[in-house]
Amino acid sequence: MVKQNRDKFGLLLLGGGARAAYQVGVLKAIATVLPRNHVTPFPVISGTSAGAINGTALSCYASCYHLGVKKLEWVWKNFRTEMVYKSNFSTIYRNILKNMSPFKSDQIYTPKTNSWFDNRPLAELLTELLDLDRIDLNLQQGYLKALSVTASSYHSGDSVCLFQSRHDIEPWKRAKRRGIESKIKIEHLMASAAIPMVFPSIELHGEYFADGSIHQLAPLSPPIHLGAEKIFIIGMDQPKNRFFVQGDTAIPPSGGAIVGHLLDTIFSEALTGDLERMSRINQTVDLLTPEKKLMSGLKSIETFQINPSANFNEIAAKHYECMPLSIRGLLRLLGINANTVQNSSLISYLLFEQSYCRELIELGFNDALAQMEDIRDFLEL
């Protein structure tokens, strides 16, 4: 039976575009060891980019974890590209031409078109599916302690954690990161998932914001500030391929491969460094006397990280032909075609098609089942 007081348990969901379907599989596996109609095992939920959307959906159904996971799974299993961004030729190439035009006036240019894709369909989908008023209700009833969504400010360069909580948690400010108390809305989710140049920036609190993975030097910071002491992390650190090596000879990357490499760095590298810092802090805390621990304000943080056992790029390559023809045409401009698709991870971020998402869900489900004994021990289930 799950313990009632679980406020120390947190869930960290990172970004990754379509890759976030993997998170749903892991969450689904955890549901198999929980009683039906049980509350969420994660009272503190922190998300970034697509992870922020998944985390917010779970928060809406914090009173019934199974129901929240089932609704998430249904959406991801039935995803199509046009549910996320407009994929018709006219919209895509009009946006590109506007961004490239040297004559950007108010009549032909607005910040909302400063991107490859128009993702208003995603905003409409989220508005239809998410009853965000349920978050406040779940906070009041004690099913949820806090929810945070991270976005990156174009103006200050800060990583900004927008949080909604049950307790009086003070906003914080650290080097290049800060926390702002704010009721989570659809525009917060759109800002957190606004991959630069891919999706348009969003205005919040007088600033324009981009994807929360940008400038996120300390991804563990939000759940820790919100009171989590045991953080379950669904990561995206996949097994590496050797597609840039032919025999013993290195081969140059295409434009699409370079973009994919940059996205991989944005979405995964910061967590590795933050986990190393946390480990050193834990070692320091263990050396302190109880009195000095109290004076320092430091505490030990436990984490459990689960990462995919298969390479997303290889999986995406199998489903490349499912992408709309217009998107494949755009990717060819970056040097990606059916013969070179495995050379870039860019496809794995943009492939919002049900066949690909379903395979990632299955991968996450099996990866979590394979470690379920350790997961249950960590989560005290």
Topology:
Elements: E1 9-13, H1 21-31, E2 44-48, H2 50-60, H3 65-77, H4 89-100, H5 120-129, H6 133-140, E3 146-153, E4 159-165, E5 172-174, E6 177-181, H7 186-192, E7 202-204, E8 207-211, H8 221-225, E9 230-234, E10 245-246, E11 249-250, H9 255-287, H10 290-296, E12 302-306, H11 312-318, H12 325-333, H13 346-350, H14 354-370, H15 372-379
Which labels suit this protein?
single chain; 381 residues; alpha/beta; Cytosolic phospholipase A2 catalytic domain; 10-stranded mixed β-sheet; 15 helices; globular; Patatin; lipid degradation; PNPLA_dom; Acyl_Trfase/lysoPLipase; hydrolase
Helical run tally:
15
Ranges where pLDDT stays below 50 over 5 or more residues in a row are 104-113
**What's the main sheet like?**
10 strands, mixed
What are the secondary-structure elements, in order, as H or E? EHEHHHHHEEEEHEEHEEEHHEHHHHH
Distance between the termini: 7 Å
Q: How much of the polypeptide forms β-strand, as a percent range?
A: 5-15%
Q: C-alpha Rg, in Å?
A: 21 Å
Q: Report the strand count.
A: 12
Tell me the name of the CATH class.
Alpha Beta
What quaternary form is this?
A: single chain
**What is the name of the CATH topology?**
Cytosolic phospholipase A2 catalytic domain
Mean pLDDT across the residues is 86
Tally of separate domains:
1
General description of the model:
By secondary structure, the chain is an alpha/beta fold. The chain has one domain (1-101, 118-237, 253-311, 354-379): Cytosolic phospholipase A2 catalytic domain. 43% of the residues lie in helices and 14% in strands. The protein contains 15 helices and twelve strands. Strands 1, 2, 3, 4, 5, 6, 7, 8, 9 and 12 form a ten-stranded mixed sheet that branches. Helix 1 runs antiparallel to helix 3. The N and C termini lie close together (7 Å).
